[in-house]
Amino acid sequence: MGARVDIAIVGGGIIGVCAAYELAGEGRSVAVLEREDICAIGGATHSNAGLITPSDVYPLASPGALGKGMRWLLDSGSPFYIAPQARPRLGRWLWMFSRASAKQRAEKAMPVQRALLRASADLWTEIAAVPGVELGYEQRGWLWSFHDRAAWEAGVAEAAEAARFGAASAAWDAGRMFDEVPGLAPGVCGGVFYPEDAHCDPRRAVEELARLAAGKGADLRPRTEVLDIECNGRLITRLVTTRGEIVADTVVLAAGSWSPLLGRRLRLDLPIEPAKGYGVTVPRPTAVRELPLYEAAGHVAITPMGDRLRLAGTLELGGLDTRIRWNRVAAIRRGAGEVLAGAAQLEPLELWRGLRPCTPDGLPIIGRSPRHDNLIVAAGHCMLGLGLGPITGRLVAQLVNGREPQIDLAPLRVERFSELARPSLPRPMVAQRT
Ligand SMILES: Cc1cc2nc3c(=O)[nH]c(=O)nc-3n(C[C@H](O)[C@H](O)[C@H](O)COP(=O)(O)OP(=O)(O)OC[C@H]3O[C@@H](n4cnc5c(N)ncnc54)[C@H](O)[C@@H]3O)c2cc1C
Fold first, then answer.
1. How many angstroms separate the CA atoms of 55 and 357, rounded?
2. CA of 139 to the centre of ligand 1 (A)
3. Which CATH number fits domain 3-421: 2.30.30.240, 3.30.70.1150, 3.50.50.60, 3.40.50.10330?
4. Which terminus in the chain has less CB density within 10 A, N or C?
5. Is there an atom of ligand 1 within 6 Å of 203 CB?
6. Hey, which residues does 398 pair with through a beta bridge?
């Protein structure tokens, strides 16, 4: 018989730590099992772009996303790249992604994503206001920058579309851009400003949340890898870890891109593909304002974090491979230079890569396992895990404690993928009138 806890959380990234924070706050005995350190350098959260973006209503799977991806397919320096590989899992994921990108489906996902992000942004504001907590949190908005008129107009149209779901924005012409952004690179022709958005230092944020959770009694166990999960029928009975066995009433699977590996041990299919991105940290020039920027053409985020700037971007579907592709790192630095003059020449202080856990429809998986009575999945947060962490933590706590989740979890269930994976049936033949 191993050590006993009410809830064992597998994974100590933003999602696992937010769940621990909520559950410990409700007086439950909770352990976080993390194979590296809390907020592992090898996880997806450590040095991400730090953006909390309730404005981001477009899920990863949106109309046109696949078309763009296909155009960029052969260019390993492009913002979206699929490394050549023969993995049936990836083929199936891409099939589901293409189906999820259909206009009707994406339209259904947008209000879901918005509701999650908005609720989470409010929770971030509450967390940042806890006395003594230092996350580097600032709510200054997010400014997208465009270099050609057609792209700017498309950006303004996208923002108008996002407004249907409640996301506020303002179109800025070149004059306004140069007034507001000292050091703006020449050639910028316009921007879109999203005032609701915020940013923080992701590593500090997770470490602070972990500290708060520990203060409420959570048992944080770094360097504890979950090797196996044993079941008896529909019940998980034991977790086998590198530091002994654990028995828990409820298990929360929050292992990011590695969740499918543990899912397989439980005969639970989780279609999550790792999507590699890079964070390049450079010194922040003194003139650069506390305003996160985005180079829209190259999809490069530029986030101020204290005396540093975090340049982040690219999305590479290449499995769990963490090799660095230098041309992609160069593309990120170049992209930053397109917005901030001289940014491409800033000497990197740190280079990091992380694997975003991406579902084919771009929405996270939050809900009970269909095969197990005491397993909750909280994974697959794609590009938005930092922003979504607090609401996911709250929803997990509501599920564990048998309360009605504050947001309808039907669109986030694991089961949704079986419909998405189904081959589309040929349309029935209809006799044509002549
Ligand atoms: C370059 C880049 C920029 C990004 N920018 C942003 C941004 O600005 N805003 C935003 O909202 N999101 C951003 N994201 C996405 C965000 O970082 C992810 O969605 C989020 O970090 C996922 O969190 P997670 O806790 O699910 O996974 P992770 O942080 O990866 O945590 C999972 C943890 O599980 C552990 N683990 C795995 N297997 C086991 C096991 N068997 N036993 C024990 N532990 C295990 C891992 O070590 C890891 O620490 C970005 C991602 C990248 C790569």
1. 21
2. 22
3. 3.50.50.60
4. C
5. no
6. none
Tokens at residue 41, please? 């350098």
33 pocket-lining for ligand 1 (C-beta < 6 Å): yes
- Span from the CA of 112 to the centroid of ligand 1 (angstroms): 21
Domain layout of the chain by residue ranges: 3-421
Q: How far is the CA of 138 from the centre of ligand 1 (A)?
A: 21
**Residue of 53, 258, 320, 396 to test ligand 1 pocket, by largest number of atoms within 8 Å of CB:** 258
Which one, of 60, 101, 29, lies nearest residue 277 by Cα?
Answer: 60
Three-class SS of residue 253? Answer: strand
Query: Hunting for tokens 């190259």 — which residue is that?
Result: 298
Residues contacting 11, CB < 8 A, separation 6+: 32, 33, 34, 43, 253, 254, 255, 256, 258, 259, 379
Asked whether 42 lines ligand 1 (CB < 6 A), one says: yes
Amino acid 251 reads: V
Strands (E), 195-321: 198-199, 219-221, 226-232, 235-241, 244-253, 273-283, 293-295, 300-305, 308-317
Per residue of the chain (434 residues), what is the pLDDT tens digit?
579 999 999 999 999 999 999 999 999 999 999 999 999 999 999 999 999 999 999 998 888 777 666 665 556 667 788 887 778 999 999 999 999 999 999 999 999 999 999 999 999 999 999 999 999 999 999 999 999 999 999 999 999 999 999 999 999 999 999 999 999 999 999 999 999 999 999 999 999 999 999 999 999 999 999 999 999 999 999 999 999 999 999 999 999 999 999 999 999 999 999 999 999 999 999 999 999 999 999 999 999 999 999 999 999 999 999 999 999 999 999 999 999 999 999 999 999 999 999 999 999 999 999 999 999 999 999 999 999 999 999 999 999 999 999 999 999 999 999 989 887 655 544 444 43
- Dihedral sign for Cα 358, 363, 364, 368, please: negative
